[in-house]
Amino acid sequence: MKFFYAVSILAGTMIGAGLFALPYITTQVGAKVILLYFLFLGFIAMAIHHFLGDVALKTEDNLRFPSFAGTHLGQWAKKLTFCTGVIGLSGSILAYIILGGEFLSGLFNSIFGGGAFQYSLVYWALGVTLIFFGIKAIEKIEFLGIIGFMMVLILILFRGWGEIDFSSVLEIGEGFQGDLFLPYGAVLFSLWGAALIPEVEEELVGEKEKLKWVAPVGVGLSILIYIFFIFVIVGITGMETSEEGILGLIGHLDNGVIGLALIFGLLATFTSFITLGLTLKKILWYDLGVHEKISWAIVAFVPIAVFLMGIDSYIHVISFVGAMLLAIDAILITLMYQKYKPAKYKFLTYPIICVFVLGIIYNIIYNKEIILSLF
């Protein structure tokens, strides 16, 4: 069960905000483009998570990613990963606050009134109070949450079977001539759980040799769920697919099914919100020596402050975090891995580094307005 809980921590954190953006992005670029992205970035994500797992086994326990970088690459890397970690994890938490507000609004707006903004504040308040609890408090919820969400997807498939046109999903985007780079940041974000590798290692105490299998199983499971989710949602709603996926089902399925989907969508994002919040708290607390309560305060108030500044497009947020900040971390992870492997492995690691460098450059050049809007 330790292995299954470890996989659920990794996959359950991946299956969050990124999942719900994928159907909408698919309608913009086409299913075939998305499938190619999963094939290409899925392989790279498995490699990066494997690299960090290998490095984690060579690093003392109770440390997080910045200390990994400092130990294996030097203080410059520790300072850089601290910056990317705080900004990246805060950005991820911000994405969950935005999306969680949408889901809560969909569930309770007709009863209590109010808009997504107010419900995002409620979602945030509930989440930060639970950041005080450790990974043991939510690992079983992650495990059950994945199973529950798959059951809801099967229910949506069953109830919406008469409206689903799988062939039309593959035809969406035929002749597409837009920006093929559009899915890059969001897909990378949806496949990223490297920050949780130290948590996974702790979960596997006494069985750490299984760590090398967690990444391929966790990433592979996530990709299968993503593809299933995309084909079911887009198959039902087509070009009417909403940005968060679920609310676009209104008018196509009965309210009971939509409500259940919103509940499990809320569960999927909420557990990821707590897990990433705990991870950021431990980075500040364990690696930088910040007092525990101050670490919690930073986790709690930095993302909500940015939200209150008017940053409320979660697709823009996850695209920025994926294409820029996670890419920097991926490069550093690969450099750490290189230090402990023979030169013959560099034929694999250098091309991976090039992919992320080119992604960063492309994102800066072609998404200037989005980047500026996040500041």
Task: Report on this structure.
By secondary structure, this protein is mostly helical. The protein has one domain: Amino acid/polyamine transporter I, CATH 1.20.1740. Helix content is 77%, strand content 0%. It has 16 helices and no strands. The longest helix is centred in the first third of the chain and has 38 residues. The radius of gyration is 20 Å and the shape is globular. The mean pLDDT is 83.
Helices and strands, with pairings:
Blueprint: H1 2-14, H2 17-29, H3 31-57, H4 65-73, H5 75-112, H6 116-130, H7 139-159, H8 166-171, H9 182-190, H10 197-203, H11 211-237, H12 255-287, H13 292-308, H14 314-338, H15 346-366, H16 368-373
Which descriptors would you attach to this protein?
16 helices; single chain; Amino acid/polyamine transporter I; mainly alpha; 0% strand
Mean pLDDT across every amino acid position: 83
Q: How many structurally independent domains?
A: 1
The biggest sheet amounts to: none
> Portion of residues in helices?
over 70%
Instruction: Tally the beta strands.
Output: 0
